[in-house]
Structure formats: C-alpha cells, structure tokens
Amino acid sequence: MTQTFILDGREIPFEPGQTIIQAALAAGVFIPHLCYHPEFKPHGSCKLCTVKVNGRHTASCTYKAAPGLEVQSNTEELNGERRTLVQMLFVEGNHFCPSCEKSGDCQLQATAYELGMMSPHFDHFFPDRPVDASHPELLLDFNRCILCSLCVRASRDVDGKSVFALAERGIDSHLIVNAASGRLADTNVALEDKAVQVCPVGVILRKRKGFAVPIGQRTYDEAPISGHLPLAEEC
Amino acid sequence: MSSGSLESILCKYDGSPHNLLQILREVQEEEGWITPATVAALETALAVPRAKIEGAASFYSFLHLQPVGRYRILFSDNIIDRMGGSQALMERLCNLLWVEPGKLSEDGLVSVTTTSCTGMCDQGPALLVNGRAITRVDEARIDAIAERVRAQVPLAEWPGEWFQVEDNVHRRDILLGSDFEPGSGLRALHARVETDGIQASNTRSWREGLPRGLVGPATMLDEIKHANLRGRGGAGFTTGLKWEACRNAPLADGQDRIVVCNADEGEPGTFKDRVLLTSHADMVFEGMTLAAYAVGARRGFLYLRGEYRYLLEHLEGVLARRRRDNLLGHSIIGIPGADFDIKIHVGFGAYVCGEESALIESLEGKRGTPRNRPPFPVTHGYLDQPTIVNNVETFAAAALIALNGGEWYKNIGTSHSAGSKILSVSGDCERPGLYEFPFGVSVAEVLEACGAKDTQAVQVSGPSGFTIAAHEFDRKICFEDIPTAGAFMVFDKTRDMFQVARNFVHFFAHESCGFCTPCRVGTSLLRNLMDKLHNGQGSPYDFEEIEKLNHILQAMSHCGLGHSACNPVLDTIEKFRPAYDSRLLHQQFTPAFDLDQALSQARQMTGRDDELAHFGAEHGDKQ
Amino acid sequence: MEVLEKKKLKVATTSLAGCFGCHMSFLDIDERLFDLVQLVEFDRSPLTDIKEVGECDIGIIEGGLCNAENVHVLLEFRRQCKILIALGACAVNGGLPAQRNHLPLTDILSEVYLSSPGLGNGMIPNDPELPLPLNQVHPIHEVVKVDIFIPGCPPSGDAIWKVLTDLLSGRNPSLGHGLIHYD
C-alpha cells in the first residue's frame, strides 16, 4: 500500500526515502525552490522550500516524507517568508533584469514573480563583483550569483572536475574557479559540462547566445514557474 | 618554503587530504601565510583541486591566502574587551604604527585589526600577536608593543609576562576542586566491573544480551546514564543517550567509532575550557578515553580553537605522558582490546565550528558548514562514521563519574541538572574568573560571589544565550531554568544595553558561515540596521524591520547560529526598550544612508562647498 | 459637475534618474487615458509642464536617485503626496544607472572629465547650478517610504492601468502573471 502524508490538506503519496519536495513535485504540487535540483543531492541552503511540518519550519528538500505528516506550504505566512528570502537574494547581489541574458528564463526572477515580489524591499548591498570574460565561449557574471552551489556540485559530482568552489564565508561568500589565475579560461571547463547547464540564474552564460529568444516566448513568459514543474517530469 | 619542510609536514599528516587544514596551519606557521606556491604544491601532493584548497582556507579567519605582515595583531572585540577600552587601545596602536585598521602596513611589517572574543575576558582587554595571546593590555603595554614591532624584535624575545594567562579560579566545587589522579577514573571503573560489575552484568546479559567483553563498556554507559549527565555545551542533551546511540550505530567495513572533544570554545565571554585544558587536561583526556571505552571507539580528536593554539605543546605533552603510562594506546591499563588514541586538531577562527556537524566538516579538512541533519553525527559523523562530539567540561565530568560513581554525581545539583557548572564570569565585577557551582545556583548568588555591584543585566551563555534583567536575578542556572554553556557577562547600571546587543549582532554577522540565505544576508541586514540606530539615523520603521529580521532568522535559518543571532536583540528590546526608543528619531522613516555623506566624493572632485553641495536638515524633520 | 470635479484625485508624476520610458509606457494605456482623466487631475508632470508639486493624492516616481536634485524632488513628492508609487525598474532597484555603483564616483568623474583621450584641459564642472552626483545610485525606497511598487523596464501600460484602477477603486493593487515583470 502506498504511504501518504498531508500537504495543505491534500494527500500526497510517496516512496520510502523520498523527501517532501520530491513527493510534492511528483504529485504535481509546486513548492518554491532554488538550490534544489532533482539530479543532485539536496543541499538545503536557499531555504526557499521551507515548509511547516507539524508546526515547525523545515526545508522540504532535506526532510524525508513520512506517513501522517501534516505539512503546510502554500500559506500566506510561508509565502511571505519566502518572499523575504528572495528579496534578500535580490539586494545581496546586483540583479538588473533588463540587462540580463537570463531574464525570462531565470528561476530567481520567476520565483519572485510567483511570490508576488513587487520590490526588493531591503537596502541594497551593491557589492563589487567583477565579471570573468576570459573564456572564449563562456561568461561568468558573478553579480547574479545566489550561492546555490549547483555548479559546484555538478562540476564535482557529474563532470568530475571541480571547476567551481565557494570561497570565504558569511556575506563575503563567493564563487571561485579552479585556476591559479582565478580565470575561467585557465580551467578545464567544457561547454558540454553539466556545471555549465545548471545555473538557475544568469551567472554562467554562453557568449553570443544572449537574448536569442524573443520576449513573450521565453520559459516563464508563457506560464509561471509553478505551472512548469519541469523538475517533476525529470523525477 | 623548502620542499623538504613541506614534505615533512605532509608526512606528519599522512599526506591525507582530510588533514588539509592542519597542513595549511603548519605551513603558515613557518611562512606567515599560504603562498600560491604552497597551494600549487598541495594541489599535486594531496590531489585536491586548488579551488577546494582556497575555498576551505578562505573560510577561516586565521588562515591567510594573502600576506598579513610579520606581526599580525588582532584585538579581541567582545563587548567585555570594549568595556575595558579595547577600541581606544587599538586606535592608539594604529596611530603609533601608522597603520589603518585591517590594512597591511606599506612595508609589509604589521597589520592590526579585530577578531571575535579570544577567551580572555577575565584578564582583558586581550589581543593576539601571530596567534599568541597577550592579556591585560593597557596603554603602557600598547606603547611597548609598538616599540618592539617597530624595532622588529622577534616575538620570542618579548617579555614573558605579557603572555601570561591566569586561571583565576575563584570557586571550586567537585570538578575544579578535584585532585584527579591520571588513570584513576579508568581504574575505578575497571575495579567496579570486576566486583559489582560482574554481578550487574549477569542481570544485564539476559536483559540486553551483552556478549563477553562488553561488560566494562556497558558499566561505563550505565554510570553515565545513572548520573544523569547532560552536555555542557549549552543544549543539555543527555550524554548517556548520545553515547548509547553511537555505540549501537552499525559500522560498515573499515569504519571506526570516533570520540571528539569540542574545545572550540568560541561563545564570546566563555573561557572555562581554556582553564580545564590548562590545569585539568588529564581529567578531560580521561573522560574522552572512558567515552571511547563506552562507545567502542579507537580514535579521538580534540578540536582546539585557534585562539588556544598556545596550549598545543602542553596538551601534546600530556598526551605523550598518558601514552607512556598506558592511559592511551593499546590495551589501556591492561584491558585487552581497550585501544584508543587522541589527535589534536587546531581550529582557525570560525565560531560556527562549535556546532558539532560544522566541527566535523572542519575536522575533515573542509569549510565549516553545518550539515543537514538527520543523519546525526552519532550515526554518520567524521568520515561518515559514528561519532560523539562532547564539550570539554562534559568529558571532565565523565571522568569524575567513573571515579566516584553515577549515584554520587546525580545527587549533586538539581533533579534535572545533575552535577556542577563552571561559569566564566566577566565584566562589571570585582573578581572576574571561574566559578564552579552545583546546578541550581541563582544569578544573584553568582553576582554576590564575584563582587558585582549595581548590576543592570547579565548575559548568560553568551550572545546566543539570554539577557537577564535585575528583576530576574533569582532565576537559577540549570537546564530547567537558564541553561548555559558557561558565559556570565555582567553589566552594571552605567552600561548601554543597546551597545551590548549591537556588539553581539556584529559578532554573528562576522561569524555567519554564509551557507543559508536567511543567516548570510539577514545577519548583515540586522547589523546594518543596528548601526543605523547607533548612528542616530534610526526610525520606528527601522525598528519594525529589526523585528521582522528577528523572525526570519529564527524561523528559516539552517543552524543554531542563525536561530540565536537575534536573541540578544529580542531580549534587550523586551527588557531594555528605552535603550532603543531613545535612539529612534521622531519621523516615521529615515533614509538608509547619510544623504550629505553621499555627496562627499562629488564635493571632493568639484571643490564645491556651497549650500547646494550639501543636504541640510530640511530632508529630515519635515517628513 | 462641480461635485464631480471635487472628487477627482490629484496625481503628480516625475522622472528622476530615468529615461522617461515609464512615462511613455504610461501613455500606452491609450484610449483608457480618457477614462483616467475623468477620475484624476494631473499636478506636476511632464504631461502638464507644472514645475512645482502641490498637495496630491498620488505621486508617481520614475527613475532612481543619482544626484542631489533627484533627492530634493523625491523628498518634495513624499511631503506632498498621500500615496507614493515607484514606477519602473530604476525607481524600484536603481536600474541601469545603478550599474555604475561598483565604480568609485571619483574614478568616474576623472575618466569622463579629465583623463578621457581627446580631452585637453578638461575640468569637472563645478557650477552651483548643477546638482552634484551621489556616490552611488539608489532606489527611491532607500530614501523615502514608498507605498506601492510597479516593477518593469518599463512596466506595461496594462500593469500601470491595473495598479491605478485597483487603487482608484480602493483595492490593494496586485499584478498577476504576465503583468509582473522586471525587464
């Protein structure tokens, strides 16, 4: 017999070992997330997927589903808190959507739309984050990094390369590349690398491919991120 | 660095990437910083990508990928040091040496900046020079330090009394008052197994199905459980349950159980572990050995905070003696199969590594980021092996329990908090230092003992703990009332409790590991808002924002650091509200930044200083 | 007729460090402008050429803050308007002008006025008539309390219409999928 738990009043079936978000996405229920990706071990850092399990806040990407759990997700309270987290990410980096190649295909932006974020609310940090344009085919725009570490995990666990890593700590945390020069051109990154594909925002970009899709036809123009559930299909 | 000395360091650490951080520390101790050449050499020797080496090293305040000068001077920046005048002292030193705080002098000789509490609050203000603690700093000492730096006198030739660290024990109880004989705990336990232990094991073996050879460990576990010992790191988890869970965790092939002593005493205002390791190291190591015996571990680590690096040689000496005396190594005190040894891992200035899973990451040579739990360290700890992590004081108490029995121990203290607690008392009192009391002592009794007068508040258990106001001084130190890791900072009526909270908020922002969004960004936003209030620019709107951030940090953070980062703010808002209100301007909303200051660069470049080149008061009051 | 006139809400608009694109987009509400002028009366605005803002019900700000004059105008709007709306990306987060923020203003001024190739005897203009630039460009909510934000570069005419009509009929303005966008 399939086991189930309750998510916002709805019964969600799950396989043993599945986390709450895995089971929810598989059942077609969207829970906002940024650092979670079905092909990688849950990371639990962005906290966007936080739900309330039996009244307590917890990240749904790391919490294992169990029979009888009472989980709240799509509530005004949780969506408000998630909106605050997204606002924190917006003011932490330099996110200027009009000049970003990823606009319309960006999960941070789409998640912010989903949560009805009308402004970044907080005071901006406006950090100084130089771009790395050294590579002939790829551009790294660190201004948009949200430290989800998907590229770090993809490069290490899938590509077997460790092209990317996180350095320093706290608000100074930032992405670095594996080269003595600190430049992407001097790493062994390749265009086919998984790490190059997974960036949810506009940090790792193919040169000369920007703005190829007209406005109106981009990923999240047609349907909001909650209507895509692209991850569920891959599960 | 010569390739020979790198070779010998690598050799000492088995060339293992898990020992990356210790290797980096030793290299840095020789060279002053970690040069690109070192990184390149280690990349090859350890087969670790350089980005990972740089990523790990840059996580820690005390590891340097850039030159920091032949003299690296760090002022302890806890509120207690500040109350002792540390900020003016640092300014004085910077002026004398012609350096800006945080910047390397142009000749590459010296850098001066601040660091989180160095654990010397009973004898501060304190600072670290190249990792060595200098206590009781005053103007005369600052002037003398500046002289020696300028004359480039090697640290070894600086006056020895500057580096003297006192124990300052003012009240001893069962632990600090014990005349502990090395090995006595192990022998007492063994004797108990031989006599009543066999009797007990007969009843136990049908109950628990214990095979032969496990009677001793089970006896130790029973004593700890019977003693009702709870962890001394602050959370108060039952030690016996933790040990039992580790003991019962299945082992995969090639795995061991691990015992870790958490001596990363980073909570500002705490310094009891420093004294325990200085004067009672045998008790601590014996507790670890007994724990290893109880859980079936063969390997142990002492995670020593970088600020206590000066204790390393002393501690290695104690370990060497214990090996000679068969208190470590194989068949300890002749018990067949009782094999255990301890390695010391020195930390590098990262408070978050006091969190047990972050500590384990750090032990493995990585960034000190707290793990997702479950699984918990008792089943999946160091290199995925079952691991117990306990506080220094917990292990010392375990040694006492082995010596005197759980029954003796559980009758000390209160019903839910057995035994004694060592408090690190500092701040506004006549006799700062260590006070060991049985659990259940009231705040007022401690204040009386240390000679505190006109006390306004006490911060119990450090910034992540509780701000206790005068009307609560009859509350008791114990897990059922005020649990504590040991810090006890006293503030008299002249102190501004807003500044206390602001200092703590700065501490958390500096120590946030940056892993999760709410803590990484939230602690910095909170710091900025507290600074805004401090600068006299705060409005009621900002106050609401502070309360909103408090909620997000508590609800959404990944670990205890984020959860408790707002505690000092919440507590001081609740109990010392006037300290905030007096800072808030009357208008509902004030700009995030100083408007007039925002024109400074344009004024400088144009040479203008006319009325229109400034913002007057007009923007403020009329809103 | 007089009663109706009295009920009209007063609206002021301005563009600070913006490109007037948001104002152009405002005009994209097209024929609905006729409906709008039944309901509102414009005070200071590029549409009226009134120079000083008077007491208004709604103030609409396009653009962020890049110089002292922007700040003065914004503060005046905040003083005069009951409801202040940040219109468009630059007002909401600084927008494109804020992309200078990682450069010290001193470097920018010297490059533009002193060291650019082809500049002989360059000097930084210092006429008191000219507003001084701020060290960094800021979104308007960092200087005054903003009641409503309409993001977008520019926000579409439909988005602006939706917010205004929500507001005029006493609803809490909200933009759903398709209307809310940051680019």
What does this structure look like?
The complex is a heterotrimer of chains A (235), B (623) and C (183). Chain A folds into two domains: 72 residues, Roll (Ubiquitin-like (UB roll)), CATH 3.10.20; 127 residues, Alpha-Beta Plaits (2-Layer Sandwich), CATH 3.30.70. In chain A, 23% of the residues lie in helices and 15% in strands. The longest helix of chain A is centred in the middle third of the chain and has 17 residues. Chain B folds into five domains: 55 residues, no CATH class; 96 residues, Glutaredoxin (3-Layer(aba) Sandwich), CATH 3.40.30.10; 227 residues, NADH-ubiquinone oxidoreductase 51kDa subunit (Rossmann fold, 3-Layer(aba) Sandwich), CATH 3.40.50.11540; 74 residues, Ubiquitin-like (UB roll) (Roll); 84 residues, NADH-ubiquinone oxidoreductase 51kDa subunit, iron-sulphur binding domain (de novo design (two linked rop proteins)), CATH 1.20.1440.230. Chain B is globular and about 90 Å long. Chain B starts with a helix and ends with a helix. Chain C has a single domain, classed as NADH:ubiquinone oxidoreductase-like, 20kDa subunit (Rossmann fold, 3-Layer(aba) Sandwich), CATH 3.40.50.700. Helices cover 34% and strands 20% of the residues of chain C. In chain C, strands 2-1-3-5-7 form a five-stranded parallel β-sheet, with helices on both faces. Chains A and B meet through α2 and β7 of A and α3, α4, α18, α19 and α20 of B.
Briefly characterize the structure:
The complex is a heterotrimer of chains A (235), B (623) and C (183). Chain A has helices at residues 20-26, 76-92, 107-114, 150-158, 194-197, 219-222, 230-234, and strands at residues 3-7, 10-14, 50-53, 56-59, 70-72, 138-140, 164-167, 174-177, 204-206. Chain A is an alpha+beta fold.
| CATH T-level fold name of chain C | Rossmann fold
- Could you estimate the helical fraction of the residues of chain A in percent? 10-25%
| Count of beta strands of chain C | 7
Shape of chain C: elongated
Overall average residue pLDDT of chain A: 95
Radius of gyration of chain A: 18 Å
Query: Which strand order do you get reading across the main beta sheet of chain A?
Result: 2-1-5-3-4
Largest sheet of chain A: 5 strands, mixed
CATH fold type of the largest domain in chain A = Alpha-Beta Plaits
SS field, number of helical segments of chain C: 7
- The SS-based structural class of chain C is alpha/beta
The gyration radius over C-alpha positions of chain C equals 18 Å
Q: What structural class do you assign from the helix and strand content of chain A? A: alpha+beta
